[in-house]
From TrEMBL:
The keyword Oxidoreductase applies. Belongs to the iron/ascorbate-dependent oxidoreductase family. It holds the Pfam family DIOX_N. Signal peptide: none annotated. This is Fe2OG dioxygenase domain-containing protein. InterPro entries: DIOX_N, IPNS-like_FE2OG_OXY, IPNS-like_sf, Iron_ascorbate_oxido_reductase, Oxoglu/Fe-dep_dioxygenase_dom. GO terms for molecular function: metal ion binding; oxidoreductase activity. Residues 244-348 form the Fe2OG dioxygenase domain. Keywords: Iron, Metal-binding, Oxidoreductase. One of its GO terms (biological process) is small molecule biosynthetic process. Coiled coil: none annotated. Residues 69-103 are annotated as: Disordered. It comes from the Eukaryota.
């Protein structure tokens, strides 16, 4: 029996307050996967997840109407995560509330920061954070640049319009970022300089981080099972209370000049493990394998766009895919509107060495099949992210900004 979410009309997937996404542009063949069905260990849905992560590395995740607490998942991945949390005291700082109408994917919250995966809560947090992000970018430029931390060797804080590069020629980008550290918001590190207007919203940022990370751990647990890795191996490399490069990012790209519209963010693979993306306007493009045609990712209401990053390629010897993507001006009439995105980037803990994991026959077989494709460099997650992120800033070392896009694992 299919989920209630399947009965939505296609109109429910559109952002009606915005210009319509044009139908005459090539769109990427992203699978649509239901969080509700994943939570119920639906074999077909888990198979779709595996297919998406191996073949394209991008998929839509429908966050609406996730299962109730009575429909507790029985997946070994989820049960394993519950078990791994039992050895620590304390109760989670839950962001879900007690509204019985709100459906949840149940994961027992026993660590200080852990919460239940809650699709509707995550959608609402994202909606609220879009409004906060607009207020950040409305600040005067001279105020925003106070929080550019590049010269301190950090990728957190503000990156101004044109302060990044999109190619080896040094072509300037056409967007601005603001990056918020997970460790800062959860009190795992010293607070970073930030605009005062963000102070009242630290609780909202915490909720969004907790919900996004819980979602990431659910996906990692399911992939862990498919890889036949030792129990809880992938989630254990991404503990929420570990020091890591996890961050929330707002991206702001105003309309480009009519006579000079080009790439706003150059082609790249993501640095970390799992990216959770919310946007409303088109502009994101992926380059599917074995083709030279860039395809748009059409935004869908009620969904996040999920993609894997380089860490997942390295940890699995290339079984999982981190696909090349870029951002261009929105298509059609959407081009005349400012494009904003909200992203959660999940990365392995800073001290995790990015190399193929032991304990999986699938990974062992992949290494044996393609020994020449292995990357023998041993680099930590923190070193990898810093090298790639700062290499794409003005004055950075572009030669160190590359990821796994050349087939290196």
């Amino acid at each position: 029996m299919h989920d209630k979410a399947d009965r939505y009309d296609e109109a429910d997937l559109s952002f009606l307050e915005l210009p319509t996404f044009p139908e005459d542009v090539p769109t990427a063949p992203l699978l649509r996967i239901s969080l509700s069905r994943l939570s119920k260990s639906d074999p077909e849905e888990i198979s779709k997840l595996w297919k998406a992560c191996c073949e394209l590395g991008f998929f839509y995740l429908d966050l609406r109407n996730v299962s109730t607490t009575e429909d507790r998942p029985t997946s070994p991945a989820v049960d394993g995560l519950n078990e791994s949390l039992k050895n620590e005291n304390g109760r989670a700082d839950s962001a879900t509330g007690d509204d019985e109408r709100e459906a949840q994917v149940k994961i027992e919250p026993t660590r200080e920061f852990e919460v239940n995966v809650h699709g509707e809560r995550l959608l609402q947090d994202a909606e609220d954070l879009f409004r906060v992000g607009r207020s950040v970018f409305d600040l005067p430029v001279e105020e925003k640049i106070k929080y550019d931390l590049k010269d301190q060797g950090s990728y957190f804080g503000y990156k101004g319009y044109g302060q990044g590069v999109i190619d080896a020629a040094g072509t300037k980008d056409r967007n601005e970022f603001y990056n918020v550290s997970k460790d800062d918001i959860l009190g795992l590190s010293e607070p970073l300089p930030a605009p005062e207007l963000l102070d009242p919203h630290r609780g909202l940022l915490k909720s969004f981080i907790q919900q996004s990370h819980a979602l990431v751990c659910l996906l990692l647990g399911l992939l862990n099972d498919q890889l036949n890795l030792p129990h809880d191996k992938l989630p254990s490399l991404h503990r929420l209370d570990s020091i890591s490069g996890d961050q929330v990012r707002w991206v702001h790209a105003p309309p480009q000049p009519m006579d000079d519209r080009r790439t706003a963010l150059g082609q790249h693979t993501d640095f970390g493990s799992v990216t959770v993306l919310f946007n409303r306007l088109g502009g994101l493009q992926v380059l599917p394998p074995n083709t030279d045609e860039w395809c748009y990712v059409k935004p869908l209401r009620g969904h996040a766009v999920i993609n894997l990053g380089d860490a997942m390629v390295k940890l699995t010897a290339g079984i999982l895919r981190s696909n090349i993507h870029r951002v261009v001006n929105p298509p059609g009439q959407q081009a005349n509107h400012t494009r904003m995105s909200l992203v959660y980037f999940a990365r392995p803990a800073d001290d995790v060495v990015l190399k193929a994991l032991d304990g999986s026959t699938l990974i062992d077989q992949k290494r044996q099949q393609n020994p020449d494709g292995l990357d023998d460099e041993e680099i930590t997650s923190k070193e990898w992210i810093l090298r790639r992120a700062l290499g794409r800033r003005q004055g950075g070392d572009w030669t160190k900004a590359g990821g796994t896009e050349r087939g290196r694992v």
